[in-house]
Amino acid sequence: MTTQKFVTLQPTGDKLPLVGFGTARISKEDTEQVVYNAIMAGNRLIDGALAYVNEAEVGKGVRRAIADGIVKREELFIVGKLWNSFHEKQHVKPIFQMTLDNYGLDYIDLYLVHLPFAIEYVDPKGPFGLTNAKNELKLIKAPMHETWRELEALVDAGLIRNIGISNFNVQLTLDLLSYARIPPSVLEIEHHPYLQQRRLIKWVRSQGVQVIAYASFGNAVFEAVPQGTEHLKNLLEHPVIVDIAEKYQLSTGQVLLVWAISHQVVVIPKTVNVSRMKSNLDINHIRLDDDDQQKIDALEANARFNDFYANNYGFDFPIYD
């Protein structure tokens, strides 16, 4: 049985590939070639962000692939993200323009609010993160409804095809839907067998919102994990995943990706290895049997690895609670 290759976004009807390529944690000096290789390997969904500090290099790889005739612009689905420091309404358009300039394109296919809280403005040309020079998280009053209106204006101007959200919970999404003239097309969240977020996913889909997963390999992609999750086995080495991989003659990474897309969750694995780029894409024809699906489903541990705990970030901020 063949799995479909796309999900359809509302309200545009645009097709979002079920398997794409993530660009977080790729060194700047390697990024252009890695992205070029990813497109050469067949990736058409490229997930990037200004906060990944390699967006300009991602853009170079994309433009080179287009110039070399590997792909046409309209065949690519490019994702960008609005960082927390730029939620104030006067900053949204200039920061988006920076992303557009980094890519050197006429429009972006999907632009997400990276995280659902606003922090003090910083110079976007300098280094930025969640905390200031004193390692303090400085929240500011920048209402999401004002941020969202600016994003809607960019859609109206033809500069963004779809707008969406990342790391939002049900309550935040519900509030956004109460005033959004253009509803979010996508919610991007941490998602893997240890954190399946089934109720959240079911509800946002009922509202016409599709889901993109980040960290599909779970704790295998994090250098440090929150207290209380250290006992969990590396997902790529978990005996259940290893046994299923051997049964289907797949890599453990492929098994985790197949499991996700079988739930119609879009995946964006990152790798610098060309053979893995190809194998990550070569999964649409694979279907795990019900018993194997249930074995993976049973790994649910409600374990969130990208959480704002002091041992990871230097501050406690329970945005997911």
Automatic annotation (TrEMBL):
Record-annotated active site: 52
Signal peptide: none
Protein name in UniProt: D-xylose reductase
Lineage: superkingdom: Eukaryota
MF term (GO), any: oxidoreductase activity
InterPro entries named among the record's database cross-references: AKR (IPR020471), Aldo/ket_reductase_CS (IPR018170), NAD(P)_OxRdtase_dom_sf (IPR036812), NADP_OxRdtase_dom (IPR023210)
Pfam families attached to this UniProt entry: Aldo_ket_red (PF00248)
Domain NADP-dependent oxidoreductase: 21-300
